Amino acid sequence: MPPTAVVNGIPQIIRRRTRTIAGAAAAALLLAGLAAPPALAEETRRVSAFDAEFEVAKGGAVHVRETLTYTFGSDSGQVNRAIPHTGSIDGGGELDFGLTGVEVEDPDGVAPVDVVEEGDQTSVLIGDEGGDDQLTGTRTFVISYTYDRLVTHGTSDADPRLFIDVVGSGWSIPVEDVRAEFAAPGEVLETACYAGPEGSTAACSTESADGTGATFEHARVDPGEAMSVEFALEPGSVEVPEPVHVESDGTDSSDDFDGFEDEGWFGFHFWFNWFPYIWIAMVVLVIVMRIRGGRGGGRRGGSSGIGFGGSSGGGFGGGGGGGGGGGGGGAGGGGGGGGGG
C-alpha cells in the first residue's frame, strides 16, 4: 500500500486496516528473516575444541601446547592467535612473563604461517587474509610456546603458585569444549577454576587433581569472557623466578638501574649526602618528644608506625606475582591467555 493512501483520508484507512496490519506483520517477519543470517554467520566461526597442555618445569618455566580446532562453516579468513608478553595477576602490577619459543607445530596443511611480534604480544597468523585459498570447514592447528616467569609466590616464598588464563578475554569468537591439563614436578596441593565474565568466581564445568597433575574442563567461553586456573604447588618443588615489572612506558624495571646512579632528589646521592643531617634531626626529635612526654604523660592508647607490606590476593594464593594482588581470584585474573579469532 503506498504511503499516500495512509495519509490522504480516514475512510481509506478504515477499509484497509486489516490489510495494513497483515502487511506490517509480513514486513516484520521479512525483516527478522533478513536479520537472522548475519547473526548465524558470526556464530558459525568458532573454536569447537581447545585442548591445552601445561608443563611446569623445576626451574619455573611453563611450557604450553595448544591444539585448536576451528570450525569455519561458510565463513572463512585468516586465523589469528594473540599471545601476550605481559599482564597482571590478581590486578597487581604489570609483569613481563618472559614469552619465548612461539611456534606453529602443525598448521594442518595451511599456508602461509607467520609469527609476528606486535608490541606487548606475539600474533600467530595462519592462512592468507583475503587470498584465493580461503579457510573453510574444520581445521586443527597446534601451537606451542613457553613462559619463563609465570610461576609466582603463594602464601610464602617457599610456596609456588600458578594462576593462568587458559582462555583469555581477548577472543572475538566463542571457544568451546575447553580442556586444560597440567603437569608439575611436585604435588598439586590446591586448585581452583573460574569461567565467565572477568572477575567471575563461577566454577568451571569439571576440575580434578591427582598427585602431580590436574585437569580442568569447561563447555563454552563466549567472547569477552575467560577461563582461568589457579593452583598451589608443593613447597620447594618449583623455583619461583624473579618477577620483572613493566614500567608505564613499557620498559622492564630491571633495565632501569645500573649501579648507584644519580636518581634525583630521592636517589643514592641524595641519601649519601644528607643522611648525617637527617640522623641528627631524628635524634633531636626523639629527645624533644621524650621531654614533652615526661611533662604531660603523653597520649594513651594505640600505636602507629611505618612499615612495608603488600596485599595478598587470589583465592588461596598469595601476592599476585609480586604485583600487590588483592580482590581474590576470578576469571581473567591470571597471566597469559590473550585471545584470537
Automatic annotation (TrEMBL):
The keyword Signal applies. Residues 47-232 form the DUF2207 domain. Residues 319-341 are annotated as: Disordered. The chain crosses the membrane at residues 271-291. Residues 1-41 form the signal peptide. Keywords: Membrane, Signal, Transmembrane, Transmembrane helix. Pfam families: DUF2207. The keyword Magnesium does not apply. It comes from the Bacteria. This is Putative membrane protein DUF2207. The lineage of its organism: Bacteria, Bacillati, Actinomycetota, Actinomycetes, Streptosporangiales.
